[in-house]
Amino acid sequence: MKLPEKIANYLQLLNIGYAAIVHPRTGSLEQIASHTGIGLERLARAAIFEDSHGLLMAVLPASRQVDINALRSEMGRPELEPAKRETIMALLSDCAEGAIPPIAAAYAIDAIVDNRFESCDEIYVISGNNESLLRLSNSDVYLLHTGSWHGDISMLGKPISRGVTRELVIPEKIAGTLTDADRHG
Q1: Which H or E element spans position 20?
Q2: Which of 54, 75, 132, 152 is most exposed by smallest CB count within 10 Å?
Q3: Dihedral of CA 93/94/98/104: which sign?
Q4: Cα 137-89-107 angle, rounded to 5 deg
Q5: CATH class, range 5-183
């Protein structure tokens, strides 16, 4: 199990200790959690967004989805949209497709970390290689995100596949699909 070069270098630079948790290749974070016995609320994943200000990585529990309205509000960036697949692939050229490590500084981009990790002693992060997770202490995760924003940017949602395209729920679009009967019970 080899870590992506940028992740390995960044962990070494900050002298961050970690344990690698090997898992079989799977199609979803839910399957990884099931195989490893790690709760989705302690498994960190990332989604990458962009606007005219540049790229932004949102780091959140695998049990949750990005709340785009909350993200835009927290960041004061109303035009944030999911980054294009090609942009993500170019940025994470040393990673396996769909395996986005939630360590933004290794790739020199800004990040916001969901507040829901505050109560976790240990956090497991996608390593970037489709074969392992990294177990980190909570304090090391916050050290890796020194200078990042922190906020409530997620909402409950069905765990998603590891692909780079299914990262976003826009509440107003969902609300627009409801009938009056759905709204009123």
Answers
A1: strand 19-22
A2: 54
A3: negative
A4: 45
A5: alpha beta
